[in-house]
Amino acid sequence: MKLLTKTNRIYLAFSLVIYLLTAVSFYQIIRMVIYDEVENRLRVEKRDFEEYVRMHNSWSTIPYFVENKIVVVPARGSKFQREVFTDTLIQNRYDNELAPFRQLTFYEPIQGVMHRVSIRKSLIQTYRLIEVITVVMIVFLGLLLLGSFWFQGKLSGRLWNPFYNTLARLKFFDLASDKPLELDKSEITEFTELNEVLQKMADKMRQDYSSLKEFTENASHEMQTPLALINAKVEQLIQTKQLTEVQMNWIDSIYQASRRIARLNQGLLLLAKIENRQFNDVQQINFTQLLIEKLQDMEEVLTHKHLTVSEQLTAPFDVLLPASLADSLVTNLVSNAIKHNQAGGQIKLTSTNNQLSLSNTGGLLTTDPERLFERFKKESTGPDSVGLGLAIVKQICDSYNIGVSYHYVDGMHTISLTAFH
């Protein structure tokens, strides 16, 4: 969820609560004011009634009080309240419907006899007035809420526009490109400071990337030369006839260690190049066909280990990859399937349009399967293994939006590649 959307929702929820509380409070205040006015009128009628009784010492049903209804009946008992206001419903004699009234009840002696007097005032007009005021208030508060919400959205959108511009430029910023990151200056101090920090970070990242790229390129050339020289000299020493058996063993150990260092150097440099996105020739690769050709190239090794290959091809597995990385990926997968297989074992290739799986027979893993794709995590302890093969596979897949997973079922180790289209 976007920050602006989240902010607007919080603002809307808070405004609704405030407006509801305001509406309820306003309704109660209006109702209290109107009721107070009605009660004041009833008290005036009470004083008029008392004045009439004092003057005439009697009460007549002559319509003296035309505004309100007055009911006078003899009272029973010895305890009489001064005055009480209550709400009551009285049936209308014209349409037989109950109508709301506000009633003032008090006691007044007439000709020496205590009477209970009830003066009633209709609340129909009062309720209509409250309803009208309430509807008008709700309409205006609703319009105010919608207007405030719309204005808040427009204002926030304009205020946050520099942030979204910065975010858009960061999304398209590429370290491999020669174009530096350029951010606009904003009128808002916080966004200006953010852009300055991001600009410094981007410049430092480009500088570090250039340095690292230059280092990997130099290391790729400079380190291979002495390693090749060491291997050549060791091969010459091995061919020398004056060496003893102990010296031959030493030289062979040096030769194997040198080859291991060379392979390790190549693997680490390849990982660095993949991470730095130094491969740009991305193209559509028929990975299924490439894997079949690699297995055919390894036919002598497969025959030597008595490995049988079976294929279940439903559809070709196509991915977008640089050709050199596709070859490296295939080589590592096939080498892993052969190296960790058993004599007389099997290799099975399964291909669909969105998934490719390469399975091989073998014993249970001694390492944690979840760490199988980490660098220098290897199952084999042989001198030919440097522990980078599956790490290279994982790095290539992660860099080019390909899913990779491992599972072991019924004696078959399977590495699956999944294309995310």
Question: How would you portray this structure in words?
Answer:
With 421 residues, the chain is α+β, with helices and mostly antiparallel strands. The protein folds into 4 domains: 3-152, no CATH class; 165-222; 225-275; 282-419, Heat Shock Protein 90. The protein has helices spanning 3-56, 124-159, 161-171, 189-222, 224-238, 245-275, 287-297, 299-304, 323-339, 389-399, and strands at 69-74, 83-91, 98-110, 113-122, 282-286, 308-313, 318-322, 346-351, 355-361, 402-409, 412-419. Helix 4 runs antiparallel to helix 6 (245-275) and helix 7 packs across helix 9. The longest helix has 54 residues, at 3-56. It comes from Spirosoma endophyticum. Keywords: Kinase, Membrane, Phosphoprotein, Transferase, Transmembrane, Transmembrane helix.
Based on secondary structure, the structural category is alpha+beta
Shape label: elongated
How many angstroms separate the termini?
24 Å
The count of strands amounts to 11
Give the spatial strand order of the biggest sheet: 6-8-9-11-10
Number of helices: 10
- Spans with pLDDT under 50 lasting ≥5 residues? 63-67
Summarize the structure.
With 421 residues, the protein is of the alpha+beta class.
Which helices and strands, and how do they pair?
Layout: H1 3-56, E1 69-74, E2 83-91, E3 98-110, E4 113-122, H2 124-159, H3 161-171, H4 189-222, H5 224-238, H6 245-275, E5 282-286, H7 287-297, H8 299-304, E6 308-313, E7 318-322, H9 323-339, E8 346-351, E9 355-361, H10 389-399, E10 402-409, E11 412-419
Parallel strand pairs: 6-8
Antiparallel strand pairs: 1-4, 2-3, 3-4, 5-7, 8-9, 9-11, 10-11
Helix pairs in contact: 1-2, 4-6, 5-6, 6-10, 7-9, 9-10
